[in-house]
Amino acid sequence: MRVIEIRGGAGEAEALVVGERPTPEPGPGQVRIRVRAAGVNRPDILQRKGLYPPPEGASDILGLEVAGEIEAVGADVTRWRPGDRVCALLGGGGYADHAVVDARHVLPVPAGLDFIQAAALPETAFTVFTNVFEDGRLTAGETLLVHGATSGIGVMAIQAARAAGARVIATSRGADKARASRDLGADVSIDASDGRFLEAVQEAGGADVVLDMVGAAYAEQNLKALKPGGRWVVIAFQSGNLAQVDLSRLMRSRLTLTGSTLRARAADEKARLAEAVEATLWPWVADGRIKPIVDRVFPLEEAAAAHRRLESGSHTGKVVLTT
Ligand SMILES: NC(=O)c1ccc[n+]([C@@H]2O[C@H](COP(=O)([O-])OP(=O)(O)OC[C@H]3O[C@@H](n4cnc5c(N)ncnc54)[C@H](OP(=O)(O)O)[C@@H]3O)[C@@H](O)[C@H]2O)c1
């Protein structure tokens, strides 16, 4: 089968080249998907650069999510049959014609969606669900502050929080992006091109939950933006991982600071999340409250161009590869 390999093991986008590997066979509890589309995520870029090695046992091929048809099922798989239209969360291996995955990490393609749209969902759906609703404990009537609001994660977070009946304050860098986040449903959209958002968030009443992919540069403002009892959930630290935190504010306002990564979680934990995502977010996809936001689509062999698009930072939503 065709796969995208990283020439030399790590490098710039140009290092992504088409290679050949044997088509994998599904083991017990696994399925093989004929990949029709694969989502591109920021972690893929980190892995390409050699900064985010695949966890033990995961494929070394890039790609954390795919959509396509089931084409083979291993022993003990009862839910899926060849021909089923599915999408899936992978530990790796999505940039390929075929991908093998734990059958429990597979979800049906929501009604009305094509493979490109479905491939844009799993990584952000799982990440947003567990960080915003589980660890962040966001509930109806509360306010979510989301940074990088037009990122793949951001567009999912805005729509999911609104679907749950929460208010959303969104920051992004650029007037066009602020407009885009408003169009996606954010109640308050802040252009934080100058790195400042605190005043605007305070004017809007503060936040109960911060979904933070920025890290150090926003740390002090995040802390001050939270209402008493607020939760600050870190999913990335793109501006740096070392920050000073005023612990007295943490105590006085009874704040929670937490964070997580999805990819390294145990297979059973991802299976639990898949069930929760299907029960909670999938109905919102089906009724249109969550729409896959696809920025651009590239053929698999143009994976380098897809990475450059994401690295340009000018995208809104997801970049997707098709086979
Ligand atoms: N922990 C987890 O389990 C998990 C899972 C998936 C993804 N992630 C992380 O979540 C982030 C988003 O992923 P994605 O695939 O949606 O990526 P993406 O579409 O490429 O978006 C990255 C976003 O980060 C923002 N950003 C980057 N550096 C910034 C800075 N210094 N200050 C302010 N904003 C900055 C950009 O904001 P502007 O557009 O405003 O410039 C951009 O919207 C990535 O960092 C990724 O590694 C974490």
Automatic annotation (TrEMBL):
Keyword Nucleotide-binding: no
GO terms of molecular function: NADPH binding; oxidoreductase activity, acting on NAD(P)H
Coiled-coil region list: none
SMART domains given in the database record: PKS_ER
Sorted UniProt keywords: NADP, Oxidoreductase
Domain Enoyl reductase (ER) intervals: 11-321
Gene3D superfamilies named among the record's database cross-references: Medium-chain alcohol dehydrogenases, catalytic domain, NAD(P)-binding Rossmann-like Domain
The keyword NADP is assigned to this record: yes
InterPro entries linked: ADH-like_N, ER, GroES-like_sf, NAD(P)-bd_dom_sf, Quinone_OxRdtase_PIG3
Name by which UniProt lists this protein: Quinone oxidoreductase
